[in-house]
Amino acid sequence: MKPNPAAPLDVLGVGFGPSNLATAIAIEESNRRLRPACSYVFVERQDGFVWHRDMLLPDSDMQISFIKDLVTLREPTSPFSFMNYLHEKGRLEAFINRKSFFPSRIEFNDYLRWAAARFEDGCRYGEEALSIEPEVSSDGVVRSLAVRTRGAGGEEIVRRTHDLVLAVGGAPHVPPTFADLARDPRLFHSSRYLRAVACLGLERKPGATIAVVGAGQSAAEIALDLHGRFPEATIDMLFRGSTLKPADDTPFVNEIFNPEFTDLVFSQPEERRREIIAEFRDTNYAVIDADLLGRLYEILYQQRVLGDARLRLQGRIEVADAALADDGVRMAVVRSGGGERTTRRYDAVVLATGYERDIRHPLLAPLAEHLEDFEVGRDYRLRAHPDFWPRVHVQGFSEDTHGLSDTLLSVLAIRSQEIALSLVESKRHRLAQAASDPGWMAQAG
Q1: Quick check: do 9-170+357-444 and 173-247+284-355 share a fold?
Q2: What number of other Cβ atoms are within 10 A of residue 249's Cβ?
Q3: 70-74-75-80 Cα dihedral, nearest 10 degrees
Q4: Which range (107-111, 259-263, 336-340, 422-426) has the least confidence?
Q5: Cβ atoms of residues 444 and 51 within 8 Å
Q6: pLDDT at 440 over 70
Q7: Which of 2, 56, 96, 124 lies at 20 to 30 Å from 309 by C-alpha?
Q8: Across all residues in the chain, what is the average pLDDT?
Q9: DSSP code per residue over 361-381
């Protein structure tokens, strides 16, 4: 694609969740403190800021400290801190009286929305990114990118940018067994939970049966929510392991989420990185907060007292097949260790099966020939050939190289600053090029 005449932005961000919100704050901070300032626009397909809209359950708390907000770990005095949010909302003393480091998920979402409201002018909501394409200059050098989006009204918009930050989150993981059923409203991923469950009319089915597939935090939260939401329904948690496991959030293990541990992981050879990630996998995957496990166990115990069994844990289960029927979803399950195959019918099935994050994201496919096999640098920038000048930063796609913290909120404050400093350096380089070669700006657009 050849450049069009419109002047490019310095930075365009695709996605405006917590990661790129933190980036926007870091860019604003650098614009106040450093020169040159960077122009920016973020595009977000949702019609407004919301974080995990369908998992904002009324009884769910955060699993990390409020201090690991958008800014505090790098700038405790920032006006974008969670503490300042509480102060502005008039709840600081009341929050202190809770004697907890962990706000509810609903409150943390409100904090993020409060921060995002400061960037209304710099974010275009209701725009879905369609493609990111290189603009090749007459000398064969790519100095800018064209980002094509579709607005809420169906119109297509093209913006040019020198640099880009991609932070679009993970794609819901739907196991192959369920892939052909994903369009049926009776089977849905946890990412759509609240809206999907509200449309099923299960409150009108006193004997409804619901399966929750998974053994992690989301599965446990959904099982508890269903148990309270539908007092006469039976809820089965189906999972492959022998039992539910607690997340390891003890102090020494939690140090793996410190910024210096990212440096350690990145400095290791590939095989050692895999070993480190496997060693600490029980901090984040298929594990549940200890308090939540306690609540589950208490419900199960009270069921034994009352002779009731509405909530059932079904471990060592493999779902071998699934099919749709007029009366629900039928699943063929096998108990590991040689159990026989049985068929179960459910009125609804919730897949709490996590997310997939592939650094070879479809939006980046047009850039592939200019990149070094999608390798990521320490500053979260995709390594590129010398004739490709745009800096393309990715957030949430670098667990293999940067460690388990990459997909979590823990690194937002530090990672966003690292990316912002890279973007400032990039603009300085462009200005230096323009000063030494006046014809460069004409080629760059």
Answers
A1: yes
A2: 15
A3: -10
A4: 336-340
A5: no
A6: no
A7: 56
A8: 95
A9: -GGGGGGGGGEEEEEE-TTSB
